[in-house]
Amino acid sequence: SGGGLAWAETRMKAGDYVVAPAPPGTQPDLTGLSCRWAHIPARNGTILSLVTRPQDGADPAAHAAAMARIVAVTRRLARDGHPVPEEGPPADWPRDGVAIEARLDTRAASPLWRRVRLTAGLALAWVILRMGRRIGGFDPRRYRRTVSANADFRKLDDGLKMTIDIDPATRAALIAELDAAQAAGLLRYGLSEQAEAMMTCFVPSALGDDHVHFIDGAAGGYTAAARQMKAG
Fold it and tell me: Whole-prediction pTM value?
């Protein structure tokens, strides 16, 4: 909350703390990274992605208090506006997940074979999740609930980031609080609004509870919100 990430980014762009490039052709290990859930439609009206950053010279205590007031507005929403239902995301067939994951998967040389293998695995997982029946050590209902519990719909990294499912009245109150904080010289902000949220997952093993799920808006999300904030 003290500006450390912004400081680190500035120093890296200035050439400090450089990590040497890997040899040509090196691929990152993306094992466990997937995009297999369908998009999650808004239940309250809008999926809103918010990005804030402290203004230069903003008093840290006043900035922290402003963020606390902003988060407090979302408390009137069910589960603070968490876009993923408590029982887990819908077990619908994902529209784009297989194509995205196939591009990330470098274990097979042929892109077509990657898609075939991923589609087969996804079809099996989809059937198990739809049935909701425990198979061996895998409990699909517990897994879906843990997905929701482990999803990072709100986080703090110098500023505040949220992707929330919000109704019109709460949206108006949130923007009023943001405008007041911006006018007071405490922060800048950007918003992106869309009909659905999307989720990217890091799952070392579906049998454990240590999987992490990254929430964003499905039509611009944090990227569009950050672009608006920088333009404003």
Answer: 0.81
